[in-house]
Design goal:
The protein is α/β, with parallel strands linked by helices and 262 residues long. It folds into two domains: 121 residues, Glutathione S-transferase Yfyf (Class Pi), Chain A, domain 2 (Up-down Bundle); 126 residues, Rossmann fold, CATH 3.40.50. 50% of the residues lie in helices and 11% in strands. The protein has 14 helices and eight strands. The strands form two sheets. Strands 2-1-3-4 form a four-stranded parallel β-sheet, with helices on both faces. Strands 6-5-7-8 form a four-stranded parallel β-sheet, sandwiched between helices. Helix 4 crosses helix 6 and helix 11 packs across helix 12. The termini are far apart. This is (Fe-S)-binding protein.
């Protein structure tokens, strides 16, 4: 299948390894991955902050970049951005766009997927040949859980990973407190929600907390680093892209890997 890869703003600027892992994973599964070079922000942050007219050029750009009929699916390592394309783009186009924009949005939104959705629902697989010998807990992000309703799909993928020790996260469906500008405008509330999330994450004894959104992982990971926790954060795509022949190496394992290869 010819798949268009959408990097997202955070992926492009702060977490490129998650985007690269998505491309590696999809290619390993036999898909033809293309990266439209003119892609920009999906406009989610504008809509979420109440500026619905301003992202019209971004919505139009997304529809143009991924509207090529040869692109059979648009995949992104982000539940929030996929939710924006599938739900918010239609609202923006209907209220402030023209007929061409409405048609373009309608054509693209139906073939847009968050990574776990694509793998399970479209590619029809849960075992992607991954290998990750670490203790892992999974945080279901709000948009993937409540807007896209991906449900157990990420967990089904994780359960099939070879050598993984997957542990349940208490109160997993509770928000981590990020919410984009919510964390800025409501800093005290956000910090309290983050403290609860970190307490549950560290209580699992996991080496890694994973999720399908880099934004939430940035928030959780920042908090964990400030309390010098042993748990680190890693995008779901990076775990699924890790194999026995090309494993993802946690920083603490670097010395052991070097010693083993001497």
């Amino acid at each position: 299948m010819r798949v268009g890869l959408f990097a997202t703003c955070l992926g492009d600027t702060l977490f490129p390894d998650a985007v690269k892992a998505t491309a590696v994973l999809l290619a390993r599964l036999g898909h033809d991955v293309v990266f439209p070079p003119g892609q920009t922000c999906c406009g989610q942050m504008h809509v979420n902050t109440g500026y619905q007219r301003e992202p019209v050029p971004l919505v139009r750009g997304f529809a143009e970049q991924f509207g090529d009929p040869s692109i059979e699916a648009v995949v992104m390592p982000s539940g929030s951005c996929a939710g924006s394309v599938r739900h918010q783009h239609g609202i923006v186009a209907e209220r402030y766009g023209d007929a061409a924009l409405r048609a373009g949005v309608a054509a693209v939104r139906t073939k847009t997927y968050e990574l776990s959705e694509f793998l399970v629902d479209v590619a029809g697989t849960t075992d992607v040949g991954a290998y990750f010998p670490h203790r892992v807990t999974y945080h279901p992000t709000c948009h993937s859980l409540r807007m896209l309703r991906v449900g157990e799909k990420p967990l089904r993928l994780l359960r099939a990973v070879e050598a993984i020790d997957l542990v349940e996260l208490p109160e997993a469906d509770a928000c981590c407190g990020f919410g984009g500008t919510f964390a800025v405008k409501n800093a005290e509330t956000s910090a309290a929600m983050l403290a609860d999330k970190m307490r549950h994450v560290t209580g699992t004894g996991a080496d890694v907390c994973t999720a399908g959104d880099s934004s939430c992982l940035m928030h959780i990971g920042g908090g964990l680093s400030r309390i010098q926790a042993d748990t680190r954060t890693l995008h779901l795509a990076q775990i699924l892209a890790s194999t026995r022949t090309q494993p993802y190496v946690l920083p603490d394992d670097t010395d052991q890997l070097e010693a083993a290869t001497r």
